[in-house]
Amino acid sequence: MLKLKNIILFFVLLLTISSIKAQYIKAGLRFNYINYNLASNNNSVNINFSNLNNSSIIINDIEKTNLNILFTPELFIKYDFKNYLFIELSSQYNSATIYYNSIISEEYLDKNNNIVKKEDNNIIESDLKLITPSIKIGFRLLKTKLIRPTLFAGISMPIKLDYKVNENTILLLPESYDIVNNSLNTLNKTYYAYKAGIEFQVYNFMFGALVSKNISDINNSGLYYNSFSTIEIYFAYNFINLSTVKKQNE
Fold this sequence. Notes:
Blueprint: H1 2-21, E1 24-40, E2 44-49, E3 55-60, E4 64-81, E5 85-109, E6 115-140, E7 147-156, E8 159-165, H2 176-184, E9 193-202, E10 205-214, E11 225-243
Antiparallel strand pairs: 1-4, 1-11, 2-3, 3-5, 4-5, 5-6, 6-7, 6-8, 7-9, 9-10, 10-11
Protein backbone atom coordinates (compact mmCIF):
# COMPACT_ATOMS: atom_id res chain seq x y z
CA MET A 1 0.00 0.00 0.00
CA LEU A 2 2.94 2.33 0.64
CA LYS A 3 4.11 1.93 -2.94
CA LEU A 4 0.61 2.72 -4.19
CA LYS A 5 0.51 5.91 -2.11
CA ASN A 6 3.87 6.94 -3.54
CA ILE A 7 2.53 6.45 -7.07
CA ILE A 8 -0.51 8.60 -6.29
CA LEU A 9 1.65 11.33 -4.77
CA PHE A 10 3.87 11.23 -7.86
CA PHE A 11 0.88 11.81 -10.15
CA VAL A 12 -0.46 14.59 -7.92
CA LEU A 13 2.93 16.31 -8.06
CA LEU A 14 2.99 16.07 -11.84
CA LEU A 15 -0.53 17.45 -12.02
CA THR A 16 0.45 20.42 -9.83
CA ILE A 17 3.46 21.17 -12.03
CA SER A 18 1.37 20.75 -15.18
CA SER A 19 -1.22 23.30 -14.08
CA ILE A 20 1.60 25.87 -13.85
CA LYS A 21 3.79 24.91 -16.82
CA ALA A 22 1.23 23.58 -19.30
CA GLN A 23 1.16 25.30 -22.70
CA TYR A 24 -2.33 24.04 -23.54
CA ILE A 25 -5.30 23.13 -21.40
CA LYS A 26 -7.84 20.96 -23.21
CA ALA A 27 -11.17 19.44 -22.27
CA GLY A 28 -13.29 16.91 -24.08
CA LEU A 29 -15.68 13.99 -24.06
CA ARG A 30 -14.82 10.36 -24.66
CA PHE A 31 -17.18 7.50 -25.57
CA ASN A 32 -16.00 4.01 -24.69
CA TYR A 33 -16.84 0.47 -25.70
CA ILE A 34 -15.81 -1.57 -22.65
CA ASN A 35 -15.37 -5.30 -22.12
CA TYR A 36 -15.31 -6.08 -18.38
CA ASN A 37 -13.77 -9.29 -17.11
CA LEU A 38 -14.52 -10.37 -13.54
CA ALA A 39 -12.53 -13.42 -12.45
CA SER A 40 -12.93 -15.53 -9.33
CA ASN A 41 -10.95 -18.20 -7.52
CA ASN A 42 -14.25 -19.99 -6.79
CA ASN A 43 -16.26 -21.55 -9.59
CA SER A 44 -19.40 -21.84 -7.48
CA VAL A 45 -20.88 -20.41 -4.31
CA ASN A 46 -23.42 -22.07 -2.05
CA ILE A 47 -25.72 -19.75 -0.11
CA ASN A 48 -27.79 -21.51 2.54
CA PHE A 49 -30.99 -20.31 4.21
CA SER A 50 -31.43 -22.39 7.33
CA ASN A 51 -34.59 -20.54 8.30
CA LEU A 52 -36.25 -20.84 4.91
CA ASN A 53 -37.36 -24.45 4.57
CA ASN A 54 -33.72 -25.56 4.31
CA SER A 55 -33.43 -23.63 1.06
CA SER A 56 -30.21 -22.86 -0.73
CA ILE A 57 -28.87 -21.21 -3.86
CA ILE A 58 -25.85 -22.63 -5.67
CA ILE A 59 -24.38 -20.05 -8.02
CA ASN A 60 -22.29 -21.65 -10.76
CA ASP A 61 -19.82 -20.51 -13.43
CA ILE A 62 -18.65 -17.34 -11.72
CA GLU A 63 -15.00 -18.15 -12.44
CA LYS A 64 -15.11 -15.63 -15.28
CA THR A 65 -17.81 -13.09 -16.09
CA ASN A 66 -17.67 -10.93 -19.24
CA LEU A 67 -19.69 -7.75 -19.61
CA ASN A 68 -19.86 -5.54 -22.69
CA ILE A 69 -20.93 -1.90 -22.38
CA LEU A 70 -21.42 0.50 -25.30
CA PHE A 71 -20.92 4.27 -25.35
CA THR A 72 -19.84 4.81 -21.77
CA PRO A 73 -19.31 8.60 -21.34
CA GLU A 74 -16.08 10.01 -19.90
CA LEU A 75 -15.11 13.64 -19.33
CA PHE A 76 -11.42 14.59 -19.44
CA ILE A 77 -9.08 17.56 -18.96
CA LYS A 78 -5.58 17.54 -20.48
CA TYR A 79 -2.52 19.61 -19.65
CA ASP A 80 -0.26 19.67 -22.75
CA PHE A 81 3.46 20.41 -22.91
CA LYS A 82 4.92 21.39 -26.33
CA ASN A 83 2.53 18.98 -28.05
CA TYR A 84 4.43 15.82 -27.07
CA LEU A 85 3.71 15.28 -23.35
CA PHE A 86 0.41 15.55 -21.51
CA ILE A 87 -1.19 14.76 -18.17
CA GLU A 88 -4.89 13.94 -18.14
CA LEU A 89 -7.60 13.85 -15.49
CA SER A 90 -10.81 12.02 -16.36
CA SER A 91 -14.00 10.65 -14.83
CA GLN A 92 -16.06 7.82 -16.29
CA TYR A 93 -19.55 6.57 -15.36
CA ASN A 94 -20.37 2.87 -15.82
CA SER A 95 -23.52 0.84 -15.34
CA ALA A 96 -23.57 -2.90 -15.99
CA THR A 97 -25.77 -5.94 -15.38
CA ILE A 98 -24.07 -9.07 -14.03
CA TYR A 99 -25.66 -12.45 -14.73
CA TYR A 100 -25.19 -15.46 -12.42
CA ASN A 101 -26.18 -19.01 -13.38
CA SER A 102 -27.76 -20.62 -10.32
CA ILE A 103 -29.59 -23.65 -9.02
CA ILE A 104 -32.22 -22.89 -6.41
CA SER A 105 -33.23 -25.77 -4.16
CA GLU A 106 -35.86 -26.03 -1.43
CA GLU A 107 -36.69 -28.73 1.06
CA TYR A 108 -40.00 -28.78 2.87
CA LEU A 109 -42.55 -31.15 4.42
CA ASP A 110 -45.71 -31.92 2.51
CA LYS A 111 -49.09 -32.64 4.09
CA ASN A 112 -48.02 -36.22 4.82
CA ASN A 113 -44.83 -35.06 6.58
CA ASN A 114 -42.70 -36.36 3.72
CA ILE A 115 -39.57 -34.43 2.79
CA VAL A 116 -39.96 -32.87 -0.65
CA LYS A 117 -36.97 -31.42 -2.49
CA LYS A 118 -37.46 -28.97 -5.35
CA GLU A 119 -34.76 -27.59 -7.66
CA ASP A 120 -34.96 -24.91 -10.34
CA ASN A 121 -32.37 -23.54 -12.72
CA ASN A 122 -32.31 -19.79 -12.63
CA ILE A 123 -30.37 -16.74 -13.78
CA ILE A 124 -29.88 -14.08 -11.13
CA GLU A 125 -29.31 -10.53 -12.36
CA SER A 126 -27.59 -7.77 -10.43
CA ASP A 127 -26.92 -4.16 -11.38
CA LEU A 128 -23.50 -2.61 -10.73
CA LYS A 129 -22.86 1.14 -10.97
CA LEU A 130 -19.37 2.66 -10.87
CA ILE A 131 -17.74 6.03 -11.29
CA THR A 132 -14.06 5.88 -12.20
CA PRO A 133 -11.73 8.88 -11.82
CA SER A 134 -8.34 8.41 -13.52
CA ILE A 135 -5.05 10.20 -14.07
CA LYS A 136 -2.76 9.38 -17.01
CA ILE A 137 0.54 10.51 -18.53
CA GLY A 138 0.91 10.38 -22.32
CA PHE A 139 3.76 10.85 -24.79
CA ARG A 140 3.15 11.70 -28.48
CA LEU A 141 5.58 9.95 -30.82
CA LEU A 142 5.11 12.04 -34.00
CA LYS A 143 4.11 15.50 -32.84
CA THR A 144 4.41 17.20 -36.27
CA LYS A 145 2.44 14.66 -38.31
CA LEU A 146 -1.25 14.80 -39.18
CA ILE A 147 -1.86 11.50 -37.35
CA ARG A 148 -0.20 11.62 -33.93
CA PRO A 149 0.21 8.29 -32.12
CA THR A 150 0.40 8.52 -28.34
CA LEU A 151 1.43 6.03 -25.67
CA PHE A 152 -0.03 6.55 -22.20
CA ALA A 153 -0.26 4.95 -18.76
CA GLY A 154 -1.87 5.83 -15.45
CA ILE A 155 -3.96 4.73 -12.52
CA SER A 156 -7.68 4.81 -11.76
CA MET A 157 -9.81 4.45 -8.65
CA PRO A 158 -13.19 2.85 -9.45
CA ILE A 159 -15.82 3.76 -6.85
CA LYS A 160 -18.83 1.50 -6.38
CA LEU A 161 -21.94 3.69 -6.33
CA ASP A 162 -24.48 0.89 -6.07
CA TYR A 163 -24.88 -2.87 -6.29
CA LYS A 164 -28.35 -4.37 -6.27
CA VAL A 165 -29.70 -7.81 -7.11
CA ASN A 166 -32.84 -7.74 -9.25
CA GLU A 167 -35.37 -9.26 -6.86
CA ASN A 168 -37.56 -10.44 -9.74
CA THR A 169 -34.83 -12.97 -10.63
CA ILE A 170 -34.87 -14.65 -7.19
CA LEU A 171 -37.49 -17.39 -6.98
CA LEU A 172 -37.25 -18.15 -3.28
CA LEU A 173 -39.27 -16.59 -0.50
CA PRO A 174 -39.11 -12.76 -0.33
CA GLU A 175 -37.08 -12.99 2.89
CA SER A 176 -34.17 -14.42 0.91
CA TYR A 177 -33.53 -11.22 -1.04
CA ASP A 178 -31.37 -9.45 1.56
CA ILE A 179 -29.34 -12.62 2.16
CA VAL A 180 -28.60 -13.07 -1.55
CA ASN A 181 -27.89 -9.38 -2.11
CA ASN A 182 -25.47 -9.20 0.83
CA SER A 183 -23.76 -12.46 -0.16
CA LEU A 184 -23.08 -11.32 -3.73
CA ASN A 185 -22.30 -7.70 -2.93
CA THR A 186 -18.65 -8.37 -2.09
CA LEU A 187 -16.86 -5.83 -4.29
CA ASN A 188 -14.96 -3.18 -2.36
CA LYS A 189 -16.32 0.33 -2.27
CA THR A 190 -13.10 1.49 -3.94
CA TYR A 191 -10.00 -0.13 -5.39
CA TYR A 192 -7.04 0.86 -7.59
CA ALA A 193 -6.21 -0.21 -11.15
CA TYR A 194 -3.51 0.55 -13.71
CA LYS A 195 -4.30 1.74 -17.23
CA ALA A 196 -2.12 1.61 -20.35
CA GLY A 197 -2.86 2.07 -24.01
CA ILE A 198 -2.33 3.79 -27.34
CA GLU A 199 -4.18 6.69 -28.94
CA PHE A 200 -4.19 8.31 -32.39
CA GLN A 201 -5.06 11.99 -32.76
CA VAL A 202 -6.19 13.76 -35.95
CA TYR A 203 -6.81 17.45 -35.26
CA ASN A 204 -9.24 17.42 -32.30
CA PHE A 205 -10.44 13.86 -32.87
CA MET A 206 -8.92 10.90 -31.04
CA PHE A 207 -9.25 7.11 -31.36
CA GLY A 208 -7.63 4.68 -28.98
CA ALA A 209 -7.58 1.46 -26.99
CA LEU A 210 -6.45 0.59 -23.48
CA VAL A 211 -6.28 -2.21 -20.95
CA SER A 212 -6.86 -1.96 -17.21
CA LYS A 213 -6.47 -4.33 -14.26
CA ASN A 214 -6.81 -3.99 -10.51
CA ILE A 215 -3.61 -3.56 -8.47
CA SER A 216 -5.34 -3.70 -5.08
CA ASP A 217 -7.89 -6.05 -3.51
CA ILE A 218 -11.37 -5.76 -5.00
CA ASN A 219 -13.20 -8.04 -2.54
CA ASN A 220 -14.14 -7.13 1.01
CA SER A 221 -14.77 -10.75 1.98
CA GLY A 222 -12.34 -12.71 -0.21
CA LEU A 223 -15.06 -15.17 -1.22
CA TYR A 224 -15.81 -14.31 -4.81
CA TYR A 225 -14.12 -12.05 -7.36
CA ASN A 226 -10.40 -11.44 -7.06
CA SER A 227 -9.64 -9.84 -10.45
CA PHE A 228 -11.32 -7.00 -12.35
CA SER A 229 -9.89 -6.12 -15.77
CA THR A 230 -11.13 -4.20 -18.80
CA ILE A 231 -10.40 -3.74 -22.48
CA GLU A 232 -11.64 -0.43 -23.86
CA ILE A 233 -11.93 1.03 -27.37
CA TYR A 234 -12.91 4.68 -27.59
CA PHE A 235 -13.59 7.77 -29.65
CA ALA A 236 -12.97 11.25 -28.21
CA TYR A 237 -13.20 14.91 -29.17
CA ASN A 238 -11.53 18.02 -27.73
CA PHE A 239 -14.20 20.70 -27.47
CA ILE A 240 -12.07 23.17 -25.47
CA ASN A 241 -8.52 24.22 -26.41
CA LEU A 242 -6.96 27.00 -24.36
CA SER A 243 -3.41 28.21 -25.00
CA THR A 244 -1.53 29.44 -21.95
CA VAL A 245 1.36 30.79 -24.09
CA LYS A 246 0.88 33.72 -26.44
CA LYS A 247 1.30 33.01 -30.16
CA GLN A 248 1.87 29.35 -29.49
CA ASN A 249 0.75 27.16 -32.39
CA GLU A 250 -0.42 23.64 -31.81
